[in-house]
Amino acid sequence: MESRSTILAAVRANKPGEVALPSIRTIERNEISNCTDTFKNLVQAIGGKVEEIQYNEVQETVERLFPDAKYTASGTKRYKGTIQLEHITDPKALENLDVFVCRGLLGVAENGAVWLPESAIVHRVAPFITQHMVVVLNESTILEDMHAAYDEIDVAEYGFGFFMAGPSKTADIEQSLVHGAHGPRSLTVLLLKTL
Question: Which pLDDT value is given to residue 48?
Fold first, then answer.
């Protein structure tokens, strides 16, 4: 008992003083001169692709980008896949999914990430098991930074959701870069131009 008391007394005597929390610097609105260009550049820098299209071009763009895809699914009305997600009760039925298309709620200019709520992906497994991920995103929803993004997200409203930035990749396997190890091999953002 005496050793314990000695140790605790020494810890208390050497406890550092309290330090005020640092202020978090946020990017001021318009500090990023062009959120769209910054977002596009970062998506491409982390291995993704960006296609700027019009609202009515989603179906034809996905078919052009993935002409050999047999099993496709969609969480958006802008693309009709070969698999109807609302009829899938067992997620294992998606194991051969070639392309998954969904709507992104918002994009983040500072890191090229896209917020995907559960309502947009229908089945939680779809974005992780598909070979190729396509996110349809309105250009007007691109925000400056993660602080602005978190200000927009109401977790109580969305429940499950996640930020996706680029295709899945790892260099843990024999120090070689491998795409698709833990998720899609490719990520394409279809950026719907704001009129």
Answer: 93
